[in-house]
Amino acid sequence: MTYADRRAHYRLPIRVPIFLKGIDKHGNEFFELTYTVNVSASGACFLSKRELEITADLLVSIPAPVDIHSKVTEDYEFKFPAKIVRIDNSLLNPNKKVSVRFAKLLYEKS
Q1: Which of 5, 54, 60, 63 places its Cα 20 to 30 Å from the Cα of 72?
Q2: How far is residue 14's CA from residue 5's CA, in Å, rounded to a whole number?
């Protein structure tokens, strides 16, 4: 059995634009546009240029345009409070791979 087989939720390798809001390692509030590396019901992995700390809280938002035929006049954002659980630094790439766990599952297993 592989590590991926033991996961509670399947990771979907999909690149989705997201906004991050939080406080970096130096205590500065930030807002960053980036994209996911993969997403599951319980969390996501994305790239970030920020200096972040494990266990820090973030707000992950997925911008979603509204249907032009809808009566809603503004775009809708899906917002997910999350906690950083892993940071992978690379010497060759200034971006860090950051993994977060969502405060609530995106969906329940059936």
Answers
A1: 60
A2: 19
Q: What is the DSSP letter of 12?
A: B
The pair of structure tokens assigned to 39 is 């997403």
Model-level pTM?
0.81
Q: Show the domains of the chain with their CATH numbers.
A: 3-102 (2.40.10.220)
Beta strands in the chain (DSSP E): 17-23, 29-39, 43-48, 57-64, 76-88, 96-102
Side chain identity, residue 44? A
Dump pLDDT digits (tens) for 84-96. 999 998 777 789 9
Per-residue CA distances from 32 to 50, 77, 110 (Å): 9, 15, 34
Query: Average pLDDT of the chain?
Result: 86
